[in-house]
Amino acid sequence: MMLLTKDITAKLPLLYSQENEEDPMVVCKFFAIWTKWTWYGIEFDGEDLFFGYVAGDFPELGYFRLSELSELNGPLGLKIERDMYFKAQPLSKIKALHE
């Protein structure tokens, strides 16, 4: 599966452009089907680095890399997937799902 399409890339704001937004939009969602870990993209540098919400053991805002998501392997060769049906929504709604 292609984790990041040109269409999604075009919708992602550049890094640091949403710093003053009270409730920025989350544009894309990636997940590991074999764990509870989920990564939500808010900003992207256009190459590899995301800023977003990471819901794992302790949900938090932070940075993650597309290259690292691409390299993760789960049991039986499972890979990180992109939620193809995810609709952009405010960060507050995403946080409410994981708190």
Protein architecture, described:
- The protein is α+β, with helices and mostly antiparallel strands and 99 residues long.
- It is 20% helix and 30% strand.
- It has one domain.
- Strands 5-4-3-2-6 form a 5-stranded antiparallel beta sheet.
- The chain starts with 5 loop residues before the first helix and ends with a helix.
- The mean pLDDT is 96.
Look at the structure and give the mean pLDDT.
96
User: Order of strands side by side in the largest beta sheet?
Assistant: 5-4-3-2-6
**Total discrete domains:** 1
What is the number of E strands? 7
Strand content: 25-35%
Note poorly predicted spans: none
In one word, what is the shape? globular
Could you tell me the radius of gyration in angstroms?
Answer: 13 Å
SSE arrangement, N to C: HEEEEEHEEH
Q: Main sheet, how many strands, which sense, barrel? A: 5 strands, antiparallel
Distance between the termini: 29 Å
* SS summary, helix count: 3
Give a brief outline of the structure.
With 99 residues, this protein is an alpha+beta fold.
Q: Features of this protein?
A:
20% helix; 7 strands; two-stranded antiparallel ribbon; alpha+beta; 3 helices; five-stranded antiparallel beta sheet; 99 residues
